[in-house]
Amino acid sequence: MGEALLRNELDRVGVRAIVTSAGFLPGGQPVHPHSVQALLIDHGLAVGPDRRSRQIDVEMLQRTDLVLTMTREHVRRIVELVPGAFARTFTLKELVRRASTGERRMPDEAIAPWLDRVALESHRALHDLLGSNDLDDVADPIGQPRAAYRITADELSHLARRAASVLAGDEPS
Questions:
Q1: Cβ of 128: how many Cβ atoms within 10 Å?
Q2: What are the φ/ψ torsions at residue 68 (nearest 5 degrees)?
Q3: Domains (range + CATH), the chain
Q4: Burial, 84: exposed, middle or buried (Cβ in 10 Å; 0-12, 13-18, 19+)?
Q5: Could you tell me which of 121, 55, 106, 60 has the C-alpha nearest to residue 85?
Q6: Band of residue 51 on the pLDDT scale cut at 50, 70, 90
Q7: Which residues contact 17 (CB under 8 A, 6 or more apart)?
Q8: What is the pLDDT of residues 121-152, one digit of tens each?
Q9: Across-strand partners of 30?
Q10: Is 98 in contact with 123 (CB distance < 8 Å)?
Q11: Residue 77 burial (CB count, 10 A)
């Protein structure tokens, strides 16, 4: 859901980006029907029936400018795989929170220097991401009824809109 919602919002604000999704479980699984319904019915976004999950790997992480995760645990696991990835790996909530209080991204500014500023201005440190916390984590609806997927999709939609705004250099919305 996060991939589709973020791609949609980045397109809306004119930020050119390649948005892909990957997780820690083995890949090849179809998108959960509740996710498909939440995206289509509640947000007007279609996910193709051939869409399959992908497993994250070191090569993928090494060539990525920005990694957004749903939880602090995911950030920690990514940093275990690629220690140098911390500077460009945030939970979606964390990026929005930290970027919304700092300097805006300048037009055509590369992502790395802006992320460095965001981290510096907000005094970001790896120990900030110990444990889990609703401040930074998006709840996973897996195994829950469709209503939980709708709640998660709505939360992700709001976060994707705000992330696209800060990545575009706009005032946070």
A1: 16
A2: -110, 130
A3: 2-168 (3.40.50.2300)
A4: exposed
A5: 60
A6: confident
A7: 7, 10, 167
A8: 999 998 989 999 999 999 999 999 999 999 99
A9: 52
A10: no
A11: 14
